[in-house]
Structures are given as C-alpha cells and as structure tokens.
C-alpha cells in the first residue's frame, strides 16, 4: 500500500471522502431494531444473575437502552472488511508508482482475505493471499472462489509475515494489511458514518442522534474508523472484546497506568475468532487520542475510574479520559454465546460470534450498564451496535450452542 504518511488525515472528513470513493462497490447495509432485545437490555438483572461474576454482591444496574443494529453481516463477503479493502484498492489505484499487474498481497485467515480477494477481482488485479495451513476449509474455499492465489504458511504471525515478505519480493505485489493502515481505517469508518445517518429516522422524538455506538475490537480498524466518523458529533464510541485468555488486550492497554500502552501479542482461542489479534499500532493511537473538543480531563476522576476497572471498563462518567474512544469493555465466552443465541432466535439473523460482543456488553456488562444508568437515568440511551460479520462455521456453531444449553441447564 501507499506510505501511511501520504494517506489522508485521520479525520471525519476523510471518512466522508472514503465513503464517496467506495459507494459503488459496497452495500449500505440496513439498520434494524428489536423491541425484544431492547427490552432485555433495559431489564434489571437479579442478584442471582450476578453470582459468580465480577459484580457478585453489587446492586444490579437498571439502564434504559434502545438498540439499533447495523447489519454488516449482510455486507459483501459477509463482513465490514469489504469497506476497507475496496477503499485501500481505490486509493492504491491513484498511486502512479504502483503497477496493477503486480497485484496485491495480504496475510489473513478470515474476512480480510475474502474482502481483498473480491476487491482485487472486481478491479481485474491479481491477489496473493497468505493463509495459515490450519485455516478453516470453508474460508480457504471462499477466498479461492474470489480468484485469489492462495499461499499457505505456518500459523504464527512470524511465519505468516515471512511468507508474505517472500511473496512481495518475488512478485512486486503491494501489501494491504488487515487493519494497521490509514486507508483501511478510513474505509471501515464508513460503517459508522452510515449508522449515524440511518438511525436518525428510527430514534424516537425528542432524541435526535445516537447516544453511543459499540463496535467489536480486534485489530482496531473498525473501532478507530467509527471513532473518527463520530469525532465531531455528540455520540460516544466504545469498544467490546472477549475476556477469554487475554483477548481483551485493547481494554488492558487502554487502562494501563500511568499512560495507555499497546499490548503487542495475544494468544487466545476465544470463540470470537475474529478478535484474537492484538490492536494495531495506528488504530491504538486513534483509540487513545484526545477527542476534539473534549472537556479537560479531571485527573482525579480519571484515576478513580482507572482504579475501578475490572471485568469491564471505566468506572466514572461516559468518557472520563476525554479520548476518541470513551471506554472498552469485555465479556465472557458464556455471555458471547448467550448473546449469539438471542440474535439467532429473536432476530433471525446469521451473525458470527465476534459480531455480538457489543450486544453482550449491553446485556451483561454491569460496569457499562451502571454507567448508562448514571449518565442517562430514565431518559436512557439510543445505542448503536455493529454486527461486524456473518461468516460462521455451522458445525462450530452447533457445538457452541450445545455448550450454552449445558451452561444454562436447558
């Protein structure tokens, strides 16, 4: 790809420009509501519900939440990743030093692989995709189906990057990373831009705009892009991660003392397999940057908030640090499974586990729920949630639902 230093500035205006650039290539996916899930999110949990959780013994929160779901599971290739891939290629086509005949290359075992393969095929450009040998056969087949040349590698990031470097040296192809580049971030941010606009007609009077948006957090391209899209609005932006085996690296790095500190490695087999990667360098810098126009940070309140961080996120106020992303919250495997089941049974939508971590935060994370109750009271929040993708292995899904049935005793 182009040198990040020559990319457009990381601003809302650049997200708007990205939206215009990719308009003919991606879907404006629908925003839907669910009265059932809004009611469940607004229902106070019982002390028994909190037993065995980090909030055991605490009075359950009673927030009022109206939920709006951006269905990127209905996007091309079944995931928001199409936005960043098409934007990256459109930007690359403007680079006079790039030879399209040499193509593009990336390393991915998931949605970015399929997204770049589709974007390349659409533009008549060769795509070389480095995939771990242990990748799911369905994902390998889908990527090949979009016309990509697949090169297999070992499973570690070091092995994948070594093979990718070899492909670049042999072919002259340009690297298009999954998330750690401004062009990718700006493309992903267009999902937030659309959500803000689409939700306006659904929000009940006298409210005018979304109070907040939660996005899943893996490499951070989506979260940082949505934060940019919302940076000149009153809408707060939050990240959601799995807590299993340290997959909540973004949350831990965000709340590190005395300053945010990016965690560079993650080794987790969370069911939310799209979120097993550490947050990228550029996304993390956006996530933790000061929000334009944010009030001066109350140092004592921010420190008190940091000290209260446990399974969830900030303890005082919606954005105690005055950052682009107001907070990051985490959820357990059981909570992800329960949220996934609700979406399948109540909304009749096919989504992947990674897509529902934001919903799980709204339903089960008492730190987040208590914060909404404090901030909004009976007036409540209009909360946007991005279903990031719907590429799911049905065999694995059956096993997951079997586990959630056993856990709930059904």
Key attributes of the depicted protein:
16 helices; threonine racemase activity; Rossmann fold; 4-stranded parallel sheet; TrpB-like_PALP; L-serine ammonia-lyase activity; 6-stranded mixed sheet; 410 residues; ATP binding; alpha/beta
Count of alpha and pi helical runs: 16
CATH architecture grouping of the largest domain: 3-Layer(aba) Sandwich
Helical percentage:
40-55%
SSE topology string: HEHHEHEHEHEHEHEHEHHHEHHHEH
CATH class of the largest domain: Alpha Beta
User: Kindly state the mean pLDDT as a whole number?
Assistant: 92
Q: List how many beta strands DSSP finds.
A: 10
Helix- and strand-based class?
Answer: alpha/beta
Question: If you had to describe this structure to a student in words, what would you say it looks like?
Answer:
With 410 residues, the chain is an alpha/beta fold. Helix content is 41%, strand content 12%. It has a 6-stranded mixed β-sheet with strand order 1-2-10-7-8-9, with helices on both faces. Helix 5 packs parallel to helix 6 and helix 13 crosses helix 16 (394-408). The radius of gyration is 20 Å and the shape is globular. The termini are far apart. The relative contact order is 0.15.
Summarize the structure.
Keywords: Lyase, Magnesium, Pyridoxal phosphate. InterPro entries: Ser/Thr_deHydtase_PyrdxlP-BS (IPR000634), TrpB-like_PALP (IPR001926), TrpB-like_PALP_sf (IPR036052). By secondary structure, the chain is an alpha/beta fold.
